[in-house]
Design a protein that fits this description.
The complex is a heterodimer of chains A (520) and B (241). Chain A is an alpha/beta fold and 520 residues long. In chain A, 27% of the residues lie in helices and 17% in strands. Chain A is globular. Chain B has a 7-stranded mixed β-sheet with strand order 4-3-2-1-6-7-5. Chain B folds into 2 domains: 2-138, Mago nashi protein; 145-235, no CATH class. The chains are: A alpha/beta (520), B alpha+beta (241). At the A-B interface, helix 5, helix 6, strand 8, strand 10 and strand 11 of A face helix 1, strand 1, strand 2, strand 3 and strand 7 of B. Bound molecules: zinc ion.
Chain lengths: 520, 241
């Protein structure tokens, strides 16, 4: 059991611990709160947070308290007004596979304590099936299906679903433009906060606001990103990608997507089934479970070492056992629990990294859904982290902001593909790794970096925006406020307050203690 | 095999934990030409058998069968496959670094595989020629139609012996007739006399489609009127293609 990731301690301390990064909808269940904390600050920071509180309150030295002169200097700088820069490509500092430089303007308003990321997006609307009846690649099946419809009117109506409306401001075009902003801006905004970790300046904070300006390409000559949405009905998928363009050109990115801004992919929910009355993992299901293990085990220091890479998210796994409705309820409850435990044991014995601290298992007894003796009712559900689907558009915007991919070729995600073919391998360094290492937590400790592994992170195969995903926003904030800094993760302090983590022994890495935990 | 990933994508948004059994891909007996393309977000593909069978999949890993190719068409495809014979087993795109979420394609040419790492950017003309040939062969034979169009003062009759999609002057009117949720600002275009539709199409098979000025579907008549107002229909030749 590593001290940096101890679910017992997390449960015990969760009410005392402040989540420094804004979580607008505070999760309520223990399950969710545990996840929420882990997602907000990461395992290492959370462990330190816990030990900080356990160590008790410490006394500040006089030199930790900011002087009037230091505060005045910061106030004068803030009074100069907004700091901004255009056409930044902070991701260009990354290197290697799938490097995405990004491209956006950034503006910091000291008065509001807000960093605004402005990305101009010019849209070039692309018909999925052209007026002349030619299908885009990947829509061949849709064209065949349309052509096979019994009447010409039905066929024409179906084909029309693959064409954008006429004119620059056809309803479907204006809806698309608005929906992109609605889908992406709130998702990428406000997830984490920065403050300037400089004595006397730490009252300066920066919440992050993403402001997309989406319009037709013809009206956005200085677009950072060209979006090429292919028109399809919402039930049709087509995939997506970003062509990042030159490393230092902030205006040559291209995003290939579909008109369906809600398109998503689901990778985080799995299950294995059992024989009647049995809780052992049976042949066939063992292969399935091994695939889940090999996909979500987490990056290791070296393949098969069993030792987690320091940068690994170590996504928690929730195992929920079920039994079919036939038979005795008490027996079924125990059977469900046994099944969940059996899966956990199998995972531990077959290469899942840190099984003890990453898995939580429970049984729910009878399955209500189906009734009778149905194989799928005799199962254990395996939920990886948040368990949520990934919205494709939100992931692709991560690339547009300059982040690389964090997934890896594994049995359940792009199997058989190699780095040479553009898919990272488990344990590869993500391209934004060095930018993440430039970030510090509230106590001033650098983040560990970013590694490629299937997790519930937005740049992997899930939907969670972690501090590391603000790496290019952080880099842009650092640049536009030079030479002052560094910007650390966490909430700003009061003006006369010491830097977080200044007090006491062993407390230098506390992420963001409660103000009242640091007596002055 | 990349098939489980496809099965998982199926679950998009439904929150279900079901996993469907997955089909085996292109490497089946008698395949003349096959392709499968995509990244972890989405995959699609198609295959043509030597006996003419034609199957496609998209997202879901299950092959769906469509009308077979004729022996003559199979011969044309076989000839195009033969022209791609000398391609190497792997074709690289040369981007450094390779862009995020790049698609990759695996082509099967009579049992031999050719992998294109950055698809479609790096796809060689020999492979694209096969796909273009298939697209050409699959083009639906045109359904001829006769259009009766209200010009604002009279109804004119226009013959369209080709596919209506190939006639540029009909594009806006076609959209107004067939697109869902039509919307257009109400035009001052004069209504035809009662009983005369704004437009009426009769297809070669006898099927008809008409929109009247008092069409019940919200926005439809306005959209059609806006499209009608944009063209001087009386000046067009009676045969549009
Ligand atoms: Zn990606």
């Amino acid at each position: 059991m590593t001290p940096e990731h101890n679910p017992g301690e997390q449960r015990e301390e969760q009410t005392a611990a402040r989540v420094p990064d804004v979580a607008p909808d505070v999760p309520q269940s223990t399950h969710d709160r545990l996840l929420g904390l882990q997602q907000q600050v990461g395992n290492a920071a959370f462990g330190r947070m816990v030990s900080r509180w356990k160590a008790g309150k410490a006394i500040l030295a006089r030199e930790d308290i900011p002087t009037e002169a230091e505060i005045a200097e910061a106030e004068a700088w803030a009074a100069e007004g907004k700091k901004s820069s255009k056409d930044l490509t902070p991701g260009a500092g990354g290197a290697g596979l799938n490097n995405a430089p990004g491209g956006f303007d950034a503006e910091y308003d000291p008065k509001l304590g807000e960093l605004t990321i402005i990305m101009r997006c010019g849209v070039e609307f692309v018909d999925g099936i052209s007026k002349a009846g030619v299908a885009r690649k990947g829509l061949e099946k849709e064209l065949e299906k349309a052509n096979a419809l019994p009447t010409e009117i039905e066929r024409q109506q179906r084909l029309a679903l693959f064409r954008w409306g006429d004119g620059e401001d056809a309803v479907d075009k204006t809806t698309f433009r608005t929906d992109v902003e609605k889908e992406v801006e709130p998702f990428w905004s406000g997830k984490h906060q920065f403050f300037m970790r400089k004595k006397g300046w730490s009252w300066l904070g920066a919440t992050v606001k993403v402001d997309l300006k989406v319009d037709n390409k013809s009206r956005v000559p200085d677009a950072h990103l060209t979006m090429k949405p292919v028109k399809v009905p919402d039930t049709v998928s087509l995939g997506a990608n970003v062509e990042p363009g030159g490393a230092t050109n902030a205006r040559d990115q291209v995003m290939n997507v579909t008109s369906n801004v809600h398109a998503s992919g689901s990778f985080l929910n799995h299950f294995v089934t059992f024989d009647v009355g049995k809780s052992d993992v049976k042949p066939g299901q063992d292969t399935k479970l091994q695939n889940v293990i090999d996909t979500f085990k987490g990056a290791e220091t070296s393949a098969g070492s069993g030792v987690a890479d320091a940068r690994s998210i170590q996504t928690p796994v929730f195992l929920t056992g079920h039994a079919s409705k036939t038979g005795n309820a008490a027996f079924n409850q125990k059977l469900s629990e046994d099944r969940a435990r059996s899966v956990e044991k199998f995972m531990k014995e077959h290469g899942f990294v840190n099984t003890e601290v990453r898995t939580a298992e429970m049984g729910v007894g009878d399955t209500e859904a189906t009734g009778g003796e149905v194989e799928n009712d005799r199962r254990v559900d395996i939920q990886i982290g948040s368990g949520n689907s990934q919205n494709t558009l939100r992931h692709e915007f991560g690339h547009a902001f300059g982040l690389g991919d964090e997934y890896a070729s594994t049995p359940l995600v792009s199997p058989g593909q190699t780095p040479a073919q553009g898919t990272p391998a488990m344990g590869d360094t993500a391209t934004h790794d060095n930018l993440v290492k430039n970030m510090v937590d509230a106590g001033g400790t650098p983040l560990k970096g970013a590694v490629c592994e299937p997790t519930d992170s937005i740049m992997s195969v899930g939907d969670v925006v972690r501090p590391q995903h603000y790496a290019t926003f952080h880099a842009s904030l650092t640049k536009i406020t030079e030479p002052h800094g560094p910007w650390a993760l966490g909430s700003p302090t009061a003006k006369n307050e010491a830097l977080p983590g200044s007090a006491g022994t062993g407390a230098t890495t506390a992420p963001a203690p409660e103000p009242d935990a640091v007596p002055v | 095999m990349r098939w489980l990933a496809c099965a998982l994508i199926l679950l998009a948004g439904c929150g279900s934990a079901s996993e469907t059994p997955v089909a085996e891909p292109a490497r089946e007996a008698g395949v003349l030409f096959a392709y499968e393309v995509g990244n972890h977000l989405h995959r699609y593909g198609g295959r043509v058998f030597e006996d003419g069978r034609y199957e496609l999949f998209s997202g879901e890993p299950d092959w769906e069968t469509f009308e077979p190719f004729t022996p003559d068409q199979v011969e044309q495809i076989a000839a195009a496959v033969d022209k791609a014979e000398s391609l190497p087993g792997e074709i690289k795109g040369g981007s450094d670094p390779i862009p995020p979420d790049t698609a990759r394609a695996t082509f099967t040419l009579r049992g031999r595989e050719v992998v294109v790492d950055e698809y479609p950017q790096a796809s060689p003309p020999e492979l694209e020629a096969i796909l273009e040939l298939i697209a050409r062969l699959r083009k639906k034979p045109p359904v001829a139609s006769t259009w009766e169009v209200w010009t604002g003062s009279e109804t004119v009759k226009l013959q369209v012996p080709c596919d209506m999609g190939d006639v540029a002057v009909l594009a806006d009117l076609r959209d107004a007739l067939f697109m869902p949720s039509p919307s257009a600002t109400a035009s001052r275009f004069p209504d035809p006399p009662s009983g005369t539709p704004l437009v009426r199409i009769e297809f070669a098979d006898g099927e008809t489609h008409a929109v009247a000025a008092d069409d019940g579907e919200p926005g439809r008549a306005d959209a059609v009127k806006a499209a009608l107002a944009g063209t001087d229909w009386a000046k067009l030749p009676p045969r549009l293609c």
